[in-house]
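User: Could you go from structure to sequence for me? I need the amino acid at each position, not a summary. Structure tokens:
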């Protein structure tokens, strides 16, 4: 499946869900802000009405008395007003000349009553109280300014929300693209991994298919007559078996199921044993393989089988890619907090553009030469995985024409002579008698 066709719909869905979630959040937040502001404005109006009503009750003119000095004001201009009604509903005092025809007043009780009515086509907040003489005192204030403020607030919230959604779409598209980069990279590596594994399996399978076809054409022949063919079949089967073991190691590492059984070991002793076993390979190419131990005990907590596997990979690469009559040095030394193993060869070196990718699976800087040596491009990947599992570091330094140095650094072991089982997460310390409880999975 095309990578773009696979991830673009996923990216769009991520953006859509992000916009939906942000929209709900903005809606809830905007509603909360609007209701809070609206209630605050209404509360302020109610407080003003209560204060005005209390001041007005003591200054109202007596029925039939002289008119109030405010009685000469020219009509009601949308501000605050004061009105008194007789018990029969007749208007007794209306200095602002408020148009009261058709106003539906709420029922009045002994307690102050707050309500919103429509006067002159405008929403108006009114407070109704009963005076000692039985009249109803009405204080009112137009809500024109409050309604205008609420409309302005709605416009601001709507414009802000719309702009926020536009920014959300842009940010979600950008961030989803960034978030998908590791997934796309992993998907790409998986595709390359499958393609490379298929390519590596194709050659031995082709050889096996050709061999079986040839044997099938001559069933009467003895196997001894096809000794060379059988040797090729065995070699290809061994190659496939090694590839399967390497893939299994990498798969277990990816799943976090790589099992280790570690114990304090002298790094010089382990390295000396591996050098001894690899010396014949170097001698076959007239190469000099020298070992320089640390000169003192360098204890590291390692799984000896896995550590030897790493060293074999490093030495095998050094031997393969060094010229005949070349020189390979293996050095062990300690440094603050760690033990170091270095494998230096006199090969032709590695170009900078290849150096950073040598730990990638199936990557080979010189593909033709790797095929000639029978490599699948998994050795350094497996070595890196095993070193990381030990909490160590594996690095390469090289230059064209100056050879390559592989540097393995491991943390020094604790002083306790116990065994550490890496099968557990986190690892548990075992006494020597409990060693059999830990499962060993050495390839």
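Assistant: Here is the amino acid at each position, in order:
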């Amino acid at each position: 499946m095309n990578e773009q066709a696979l991830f673009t719909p996923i990216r769009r869905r991520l953006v859509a869900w992000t916009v939906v979630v942000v929209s709900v959040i903005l809606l809830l937040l905007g509603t909360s802000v609007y209701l809070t502001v609206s209630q605050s404005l209404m509360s302020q109006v109610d407080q003003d009405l209560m204060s005005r009503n209390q001041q007005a009750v003591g200054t109202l003119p007596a029925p039939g008395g002289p008119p109030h000095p405010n009685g000469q004001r020219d009509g009601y201009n949308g501000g605050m007003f004061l009105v008194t009604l007789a018990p029969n509903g007749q208007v007794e005092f209306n200095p602002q000349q408020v148009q009261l025809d058709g106003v539906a007043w709420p029922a009045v009780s002994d307690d102050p009553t707050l309500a919103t009515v429509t006067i002159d086509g405008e929403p108006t907040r009114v407070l109704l109280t009963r005076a000692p003489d039985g009249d109803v005192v009405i204080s009112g204030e137009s809500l024109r300014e409050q309604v205008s403020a609420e409309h302005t607030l709605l416009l601001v919230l709507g414009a802000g929300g719309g702009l926020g959604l536009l920014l959300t779409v842009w940010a979600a598209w950008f961030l989803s693209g960034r978030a998908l980069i590791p997934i796309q990279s992993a998907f790409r590596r998986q595709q390359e991994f499958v393609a490379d594994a298929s390519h590596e399996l194709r050659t031995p399978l082709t050889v096996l298919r050709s061999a079986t076809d040839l044997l099938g054409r001559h069933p009467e022949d003895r196997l001894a007559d096809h000794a060379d063919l059988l040797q090729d079949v065995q070699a290809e089967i061994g190659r496939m078996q090694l590839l399967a073991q390497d893939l299994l190691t990498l798969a277990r590492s990816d799943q976090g199921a790589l099992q280790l059984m570690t114990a304090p070991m002298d790094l010089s002793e382990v390295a000396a044993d591996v050098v001894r076993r690899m010396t014949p390979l170097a001698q076959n190419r007239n190469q000099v393989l020298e070992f320089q131990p640390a000169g003192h005990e360098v204890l590291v907590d390692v799984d000896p089988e896995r550590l030897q596997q790493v060293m074999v990979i490093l030495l095998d690469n050094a031997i393969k890619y060094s010229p005949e009559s070349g020189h390979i040095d293996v050095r062990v030394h300690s440094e603050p907090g760690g033990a170091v193993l270095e494998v230096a060869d006199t090969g032709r070196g590695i170009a900078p553009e290849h150096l950073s990718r040598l730990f990638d699976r199936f990557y080979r800087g010189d593909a033709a030469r790797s095929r000639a040596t029978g490599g699948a491009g998994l050795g350094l990947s497996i070595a890196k995985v095993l070193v990381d599992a030990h909490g160590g570091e594996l690095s390469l330094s090289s230059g064209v024409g100056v050879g390559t140095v592989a540097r393995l650094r491991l943390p020094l072991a604790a002083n306790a002579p116990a065994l550490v089982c890496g099968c557990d997460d986190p690892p548990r310390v075992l006494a020597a008698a409990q060693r059999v409880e830990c499962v060993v999975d050495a390839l």
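One structural detail worth keeping in mind: Confidence is low (pLDDT under 50) at residues 64-77, 367-373, 416-443.
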